[in-house]
Predict the 3D structure of the following.
Amino acid sequence: MTFLQPLLLIALPLIAMPIVIHLMNQRRHLVVPWAAMQFLRRAKRLNTGVAKLRYWLIMAMRMAAVAGVILALSRPLATGWVGGLGSNDRITLIVLDRSPSMELQDTTTQMSKRTSALERLDTLFATTGSSGRRFLLTSGLEKPIEITSPTKLTGLTETSFVAASSDIPGLLEKAISFADDNKLGAADIWVASDLQSGDWQPSSDRWRAIREQVGKRPATRLLLLNFPNNGDTNFSVSATNIKPIEINGKVETSFDIHLHQNSGPLVRRTVPVLVRMGGIQSTVEVTMQGEDGSVTGVRVPMEEASPSQAGLLEIPPDANLADNRFHIVSQKTRSRSAVVVGQAGEEVDLLALALSTQNDNSPQVNLQSIDPTMLPTIDWKSLKLLVWNQGNINSATARQLESLIESGGTVVLFPPSVETDTSSELVLPFGLQWSPMEQLATAERVESWRTDSDLLRNTEGGDSLPLGEIRWNQHWQMNSKGLIALAKSASGKSMLSKFPTSNGQLFVCHTTVSESASNLKEDGVCLYIMLQRALHDSASLADQSLWTAGMPIPFTLQEWTPANDVSQQVIPWERSIQPGSYSLEDNMIAVNRAIAEDTSASLPKETLESMLQGVTYQSIVDDAGKPNSLAREIWRVFIVGMILFLLMEAWLSMPNRVSRASVRENTIARKGLAA
């Protein structure tokens, strides 16, 4: 328990005051033996046990009343699970989840989970009077920021809503590292979140490192302020399959509308969706079937003179305003761009030839063959496909390739033609690394491959590719266990693999196209189909109209122009983490929340316990919009207790009631003696 006036607790020894007074009163009386009283003492021995019990109860009530007065004057706080927060020497690190799911409101008070969490923490610090240093960590911040004493969390720009999902394990790692780097002693780490699985990432390997790091800091307390989903009805809107189509010489934007109900009772209903695109405004009625509802093939005409067009989908206000809008962008078909990166030679020339050979119906491809030193000259905005025929690279270049993949582009990795550097400082996208080349004693042959999807899928007529003739005798292995084999030999060696990504595609070929390594050049057909499909299935930054908020963007949006009135309200340096649509010359993009935020899947208690196994933490479950507090003064409870103790003491001190029969007998006895 925490006290706002802890110095008054030095008066607690006064609880013994009733005992001291009793002992002093005993010393004031002189005991004189009297023969006649001996008979009365014998008679009273029968009630000695009851009398002593009554005596000690009276003494206990008096002591409890004194204790109640002292504790009430010390102003105790009902902190319970957060006891000790009044200590001024403790550092507080606040990890705030401000993702769209935290905007779910209590419809009565109009307070969201995020706002409720901030007010709870502000009230806690104000009530306890804690003067310890406080730091904030949240999405969109590169490093923790310190909160000055008079500043409230609710008044900070850094605590406002963003459309980006929260990386809770990443934020916790930052908090612990910050505490270690700055040699912070006793610290409290608050995590305010709604425990959504997408933000907490329970399958991430980082939780093991977090458990180890927290275990090395016994003075660190982990406090979880959780806001589970409430029952207020909420819908979210999104769009997919956005593309321009040409009908009778006119271009239209076609897309599918999706609605999802993530809270509230499921009732069959129709939800109106307002569609605004260009100068056209219309309403589409979506009928809900359980949790979901959709309308496919919605079409809106595009302006002939405009190469791109921005639109906005909007549903009526409900419990969460953060998922009631979805920005869309449609861009007319433009030429494709591809780059082959590698040292000039036969291998690079062969890869470029496979990409440049087009049929009559294919759009023109802008193809470049460059060496790694020419990477800064690449037009990343129009790039669809990058074929990497080079070794490991530095982390900065790897991040550029990751951004291309996450924007919808495709990267195909081929082993280097020369021995590569396997230093841990040199990597490929997503931490991949080439291992040293393995010269096989016997050539491997493709035995099985994936025919339902990806680069090696069957043709539209159902025919499979002639991969069974592909052989290789030089093999390059990757250091990652996350690769998915698309084609492999009978011994299990992969010829082609795919690394799973949330957006875009990353393929790995485990042999080169040189004649000494494989027969990919001799065969020709399979290599051509693989690269052409990689080019066809990818999307360039310019063609990629939909971006997920918080995703790395290889160019700044501050130079772009807002495409509608909603986007104009976004601060320029927050455009990558806030919803909106923007244009620059002929290019146009839309930034939206992660679709995973629309689901209401919260972490089960068992999963949370497994993630934090071995870590001492305290979980506090709260409700958004309710007038709760993490710390409340409860001195009134002690005042009421003191009154009750005094009433009990008075009742116990009352003399025994004498029955009427006893009074009558005593009266007759006195009269008899008088006679």
